[in-house]
Amino acid sequence: MQPMSSLILAAPFDGWLSPLDDVPDPVFAQRLLGDGMAIDPLDGTLHAPADGTVVSVHAARHAITLRLAGGVEVLMHIGLETVRLDGEGFVAHVAAGDTVAAGDRLISVDLGTVAPRVKGMITPIVVTETGGHAVIERAAPGRITRGAPLLVLGEAAADGAAPNAAFAATAQATLRLPLAHGLHARPAARLAELAKSYDADVRIVPAANPHATPCRLRSPSAVMALGLRHGDGLTLLASGPAAAAVIEALADLIATGMGELRPLDQQAAPAPAPAQKPAESVDTSPIAPGERLMAVTAAAGYAIGQAAWLERPEPPRTAHASGDAGAEIARFTQALAAFRTALEQRAQEQAGSEQAAILTAHRQLLDDEDILESVGDAMTRGDSASLAWQRTMQARAATLRAAPDPHIAQRADDFIDLEWQLQWHLAGQEPPAVALPEAAIVIARDLVPSQVAALSPAQVAGLVTAQGGPTSHVAIIAASKGIPALVAAGPRVLSIAPGTPLLLDATGATLTVDPDDATWATAQAEAARRQARKAAAQAAAALEGRTSDGLRIEVCANLGKRSEAAPAVANGAEGCGLLRTEFLFLDRANAPDEDEQTADYTAIAQALDGRPLIIRLLDIGGDKPAPYLPMAAEENPALGLRGIRVGLAQREMLVPQLRAVLRAGAGSAAGAVKVMAPMIARVEELRAVRAALDAEAAKLGVATVPLGVMVETPAAAVMADALAAECDFLSIGTNDLTQYALAMDRGNPAVAGSIDGLDPAVLRLIGLCCEGAQSHGKWVGVCGGLASDPLAVPILIGLGVTELSAALAMVPEIKALVRALSAQDCRGLASAVLQASSAAQVRVLATQMIEGVAQ
Ligand code: PEP
Ligand code: MG
């Protein structure tokens, strides 16, 4: 007998996916018509979920049944109680007997007319005739994109047994997840790593879906795709000689919370707000000339140009197998090997860059055991290599996209990208080169990382996507290439015709479509001005930071990793005013030891070649958890155990770091390496750090290093004189200082629009800090976001700051600005802004000054 091949149903709408249980109609919720899922649509056109024929379209045009391969029939019922509208607001594009292909339009619905008049738009998609199939895989609830795999139908188990019955576990444990942020990438990787060290095969099954195929623990992508959240139940199953031991070890590790422990009786944090608007508010109206659309900034900058579509050429896919599973497996293996080699080569070519890290991560995904097995199984069942790979990767992408955590959801693009790239290898062809017009502002529904990686800033002025998110790899690559980019601009951008003049302002997160002549002329002048200023600043980047009247201002860069040190120097950075060491500690299973830290700090100091390097002690806790540092959940983490409080409470973290700093200092130019403590609120904390630093220096037999205080709390700012008496320098972390001064959480979107470091309250604290430091002859720097804000620079200099540590890319511009300013004028501005009553007023005063400065 021929093995039954699986049938994949794609999502017929963009929308929010839920289980049938959530449909407020017992006929669907109790599955009286059959199994399936439901989508609350975000667009108004229902598409075919697979190839088939139309069995019937209801007279009220709100429901349609299709017959698909293998005798499967699917009913799609748009909205609830929509039959009452008797077809008003619905247009059917097909009729009974028509043949349809997957993705064909079936019915359009005017959501604006229909939605307000019915009980809901939730649309059940139900398998009414199974043809001997059962649902063997389903996308996870949440946001789903049209065309993404929704349901996979496969052979029903003869005895009705769940597929996981095939896994003969000899040990198992059922537990609930105490991880505050659920089972996301890092804990999944940690569990996989632990599982690999035992001679056992371990699987995981979510309690909510006990009949799901047990997911292999050695496949972090699959584990992550389960979307397990805090408090969810799960069963670990193991077979093999070390089954019992591995289950015990895994259960113990999970119980620690892996640094994200939240007691099970505490509520999980609310899911992040969805990136998309709900159905009723989706605007698909045409764009009027001159209209300004809002989006989300993914990469900063300003661009003018013409709209261009970046088509992604479809690789030739082979849907039907040769009939020889062995031949398909051989083709797949060969293509996979070629793809691995290509990714490795590209990573080597880009060594040290963001792109290399992404390429390496992609290369690792190709080793995911679960993905490979799923593709292998599909080929053995009769799918072609091309189809098996497509289904596996699209299903994985759909599941990730539905994840409530936007960071996980945005990784779906990586799977779509890998799917696409391997198809070209399978076809033995190269994707055709993209042709774009001059000054192209690329518009796309969404982009994948390899597409953006292939673009050059010389060819592309900007990018705009209807979907996507600011933390995606697409955003990271665009920023690393200096291409301004907007994401999540909404479906209306898709109606922009190629060639339409566009003005992209990523700073204001706006896209102006077909601006009038006056706006266009102003934008051209602005773009030319920015370009000339940038070029001049870059050309003068090596010059010393000094105001026009001779005050020395050191302009440094903030760094987070080794690979940034050389580009910082090339950009003219006169040192590093803030090394955020927590970035060296994140995304790993264990803290780096003293030797590893010494090597990192020494390498950065060497790359800076004698310039100052200020190493900030680990700033974790609160919103910056580290997976290997178990910390109990806190009611109010921003006011809890974070920054230096963690180090002082857990000396086993602090001491190796102090020793590594001292050792790096001993191997560098005298005084070049300095250390500073984050979140200091009291003099006693500074004394405790000083004592630990001096004690370790004595033990190592090396000279101690200068010790600074980060001024991030209002307490530290007003006590700056007392702190300055005992430290060597102060550096103001304006991001935290602003959040604590204004009592506005820097990570809370509800107050994001109001939190402003140029608030006079913050500026007065900075002024107090400078006065306090000056009374003891100590210098003050700024390493928070204000140091990168051109409007803030003259104010900070006027208040007495003599070191600015800016974002790496901003260093040339900030340096050029410093050289154009006079310290005397800055002091005048500072006294004026200290009398201002609002941030808006401060901005007006600062803008007037900056505009009067010839750069
Ligand atoms: C700050 O708070 O301004 C700062 C520089 O530290 P971080 O942004 O890393 O908290
Ligand atoms: Mg801070």
Concise structural overview:
The protein is of the alpha/beta class. Helix content is 36%, strand content 19%. Helix 19 (651-666) packs across helix 20.
Description of the molecule:
36% of the residues lie in helices and 19% in strands. It contains 29 helices and 34 strands. The strands form 6 sheets. The chain has an 8-stranded antiparallel beta sheet with strand order 9-5-6-7-11-3-2-13, with helices on one face. The protein has an 8-stranded mixed beta sheet with strand order 19-26-25-21-22-23-24-20. The longest helix is centred in the middle third of the chain and has 25 residues, at 325-349. It is globular and about 85 Å long. The N and C termini lie far apart (79 Å). The model is unreliable at 157-165 and 268-281 (pLDDT under 50). Bound molecules: phosphoenolpyruvate and magnesium ion (MG).
Outline the fold blueprint.
Layout: E1 7-10, E2 15-19, H1 26-29, E3 35-41, E4 45-47, E5 52-57, E6 63-67, E7 73-77, E8 90-92, E9 99-100, E10 105-109, H2 111-114, E11 123-129, E12 133-138, E13 142-144, E14 149-155, E15 171-176, H3 185-196, E16 201-206, E17 215-216, H4 220-225, E18 233-239, H5 243-256, E19 292-294, E20 296-299, E21 302-309, H6 325-349, H7 354-365, H8 369-381, H9 385-401, H10 406-409, H11 412-427, E22 440-444, H12 449-453, E23 460-465, H13 473-481, E24 485-487, E25 501-505, E26 510-513, H14 517-539, E27 554-559, H15 565-570, E28 576-580, H16 582-585, H17 594-608, E29 613-616, H18 644-649, H19 651-666, E30 673-677, H20 683-700, E31 707-711, H21 714-718, H22 720-724, E32 729-732, H23 734-742, H24 749-752, H25 760-774, E33 779-782, H26 792-799, E34 803-806, H27 811-820, H28 823-834, H29 839-851
Parallel strand pairs: 21-22, 22-23, 23-24, 27-28, 27-34, 28-29, 29-30, 30-31, 31-32, 32-33, 33-34
Antiparallel strand pairs: 1-14, 2-3, 2-13, 3-11, 4-10, 5-6, 5-9, 6-7, 7-11, 8-10, 12-14, 15-18, 16-17, 16-18, 19-26, 20-24, 21-25, 25-26
Bound molecules: phosphoenolpyruvate and magnesium ion.
